[in-house]
Design goal:
InterPro entries: CobQ/CobB/MinD/ParA_Nub-bd_dom (IPR002586), DNA_Partitioning_ATPase (IPR050678), McdA (IPR048089), P-loop_NTPase (IPR027417). It comes from Chelativorans salis. The protein has 217 residues and is of the alpha/beta class. The model has no long low-confidence stretch (mean pLDDT 87).
């Protein structure tokens, strides 16, 4: 299974979700590889921070910020149960390559009208990729979300009848994610009982169900 976290807009939390999905699947005993397809290399920086802290390696992180990604990712997938792609903002060639590689695209958005407007360009790329890969599945995921706010509710309602649809799992705006990024850790390693850990577990579960449903006859 190859899952790509993509959005043309920066700052939507793609890297955070990619790292934590990879970490959650690795925690379950799966072989996982994360492809850092962002020229900024944030996932690679996280991995280096983890190594400096002498923390155990949970999954491999590979830098692959080039538009041949769709040809190279399947080789990694042969040796892994799950491959997670942390995509770039505003690099159309890389974005297209990641779309052609993925079984499922998750599009993180925050509860903001600006994120909704910025997603239009991303959806145009998804529709373009479906010309070549009509089986490509895409979902919005509401991220950095204060669930009880009016804006979060309105964003979820606006996406409810959208194509692609929004996941039922939402991920909150939580300080523990920043702490994890700074120390090369995962939220489950900081507090396994935290709400953030439960949200990542639910996100991993829902993602697996979607891909499994796609593969069913």
């Amino acid at each position: 299974m190859i899952v790509a976290l993509l959005n043309q807009k920066g700052g939507t939390g793609k890297t955070t979700l990619a790292l934590h999905l990879a970490g959650e699947w690795a925690r379950r005993g799966n072989r996982v590889a994360l492809i850092d397809a962002d020229p900024q290399g944030s996932a690679l920086d996280w991995s280096e921070q983890r190594a400096r802290g002498r923390l155990p390696r949970r999954f491999g992180v590979v830098g692959l910020a080039r538009d041949t990604l769709h040809r190279e990712a399947p080789d990694l997938a042969r040796d892994a149960d799950h491959v997670v792609i942390d995509g770039p903002p505003r690099v159309a060639g890389l974005m297209r390559s990641a779309l052609l590689a993925a079984d499922l695209v998750l599009i993180p958005v925050q509860p903001s009208p600006l994120d909704g407007w910025a997603s239009a360009e991303m959806l145009a790329l998804v529709n373009e990729a479906r010309i070549y890969r009509p089986e490509l599945v895409a979902r919005f995921v509401l991220n950095r979300c204060a669930t009880r706010t009016v804006l979060a509710r309105e964003t979820a309602e606006a996406l409810a009848d959208h194509d692609p649809p929004v996941l039922s799992t939402t991920v909150g705006q939580r300080i523990v994610f920043a702490a994890a990024a700074q120390t090369g850790r995962l939220v489950s390693e900081i507090d396994n009982a935290a709400a953030a850990t439960r949200e990542i577990t639910a996100l991993a579960d829902e993602t697996v169900r979607i891909v499994a449903g796609k593969a069913s006859p």
